[in-house]
Amino acid sequence: MRVIAATSRDLQALVEEGRFRADLFYRLNVLPIRVPALRERLADLDALAESLLEQIATRSGMPQRELLAGALQALSAHEWRGNVRELRNALEQAAMLTDKIRLDAEDFADVLRGSTPSPAARWRVGVGANDTSPLPQRIAELERESIRSALATTGGNKVSAAKLLGISRATLYEKLAAMRAAPPEVS
Fold this sequence. Notes:
Blueprint: H1 11-16, H2 22-28, H3 45-60, E1 66-67, H4 69-76, H5 83-96, E2 102-103, H6 109-112, H7 119-122, H8 135-153, H9 158-165, H10 169-181
Parallel strand pairs: 1-2
């Protein structure tokens, strides 16, 4: 018999805190597969949304919707605490609230109202409109600044900083280790 288990919790941290049985953890942790939360892989948002819109159309009998650039931008700025399920609900609500085939940002205004912007939208670092540095470099700097800001805000508390950033504690530790291992930047 093989058991496949999924959780959004950091089981190793729970074992360390004494809140999850170590023997059960080691039985389940034979081949761990970490699937990052949607907020950690926004590059997949377009493909996921397209697939979900296709499923929604098939299941509901409605015409398949497509997302315009403004809609993708609005969806990318969302924090997605509910992960892919929340994305599916947002797409389904938007599709049900309009007859338009092409959905734009205004079609998601009511659906996403009152939501928390993503960490990337919350912490804009000194990247000007005329900054022509390579995008991966700009993204890496945004990530480093976001982590530094979250740690400063939480007084160095990594658990709180991870929550503030919308990532797991393990992911924060991985990113901090990568930051320490990176060569110093040349100005």
